[in-house]
Amino acid sequence: MLVNLNEVLADAQKNKYAVGLFNTINMEMLQAAIEAAEELNSPIIIGTAEILLPYGELSLISPSMIEAAKNARVPVVVHYDHGLTFARCMEALKRGFSSIMFDGSTSSHEDNIDNTSKVVKIAHAFGASVEAELGHVGETESASANDALTTAEEAYHFTTATGADALAIAIGTAHGVYKSKPKLDFERLKEIRAEVNTPLVLHGGSGLSDADFKKCIECGIAKMNIFTDLTLAATKGFQTGIADGLNYLNARNCQKDEIKQTIMRYLRLFGSENRA
């Protein structure tokens, strides 16, 4: 069934588990995500991001994603991840996405509040939820100690001013493949959780240890984002199929199954199994 973030994150926050977002830019990823969620009776968030549109244009992939969510036996959020432009966020809403992330994290604090507030007002009129980002989660290639981490005071002010339904925070993660073990600021996470009631989101999850994931959930994260690990699983599955001498269709199924197993591992790790 198609739902928005509010319909899955409230319970996750209350009962200390996390709902996973898995960007699904093609049919293999989409089928793998829905099958994994149904098999484990887990809520799930599927989506795409503005930076990923060259690999799957919204006009082409959104009908499949939304139809798959509507027909699923478990709650499925269709989420537009890291929306960087107002126009693309509006397009996602018009195409039926039940949730969008407006990422104004590279703007000034005042502009981020102002622009996020406008998006929230419009999205809520569509019945959709909005995730915002405060602080900045960069790329692994350029991450540094100087990256803007989120403070509890800013988080409280931001959520109060914008009415965002979920807040992505920066506590030391980055997007992409980690070259070295990231150092997460769990005390910062605890401080933010104590100040705000809004469900908190962690980006840059691929590559963290199981212990890191569990600690993040324990300290208050309710939504985890995973994509890089899906691409690695897809590559592994397809290469295995080709190495076994299979034709394209069978190799494609090996790819889908590898992605599915990766998603199932995360759903179990996040504690969302049998929470649908």
Structural account:
This protein has 276 residues and is of the alpha/beta class. The protein is 48% helix and 16% strand. The chain has 10 helices and 9 strands. The chain has an 8-stranded parallel β-barrel with strand order 2-3-4-5-6-7-8-9, surrounded by 9 helices. Strand 2, helix 2 (27-39) and strand 3 form a beta-alpha-beta unit. Helix 2 runs parallel beside helix 3, helix 6 (152-162) runs parallel beside helix 7 (186-195) and helix 9 (228-243) packs antiparallel against helix 10 (248-270). It is globular and about 55 Å long. The model is unreliable at 139-146 (pLDDT under 50).
Protein traits:
276 residues, alpha/beta
In the sheet with the most strands, the strands line up as: 2-3-4-5-6-7-8-9
**Beta-strand content:** 15-25%
- Helix and strand content put the structural class at alpha/beta
The tally of beta strands, per DSSP, is: 9
In sequence order, what are the helices and strands, one letter per element?
Answer: EHEHEHEHEHEHEHEHEHH
User: How much is the average pLDDT?
Assistant: 92
Name the poorly predicted regions.
Answer: 139-146
- Largest sheet at a glance? 8 strands, parallel, barrel
Terminal CA distance: 10 Å
SS summary, helix count: 10
Share of helical residues: 40-55%
**Could you tell me the radius of gyration in angstroms?**
18 Å
Categorize the overall geometry: globular
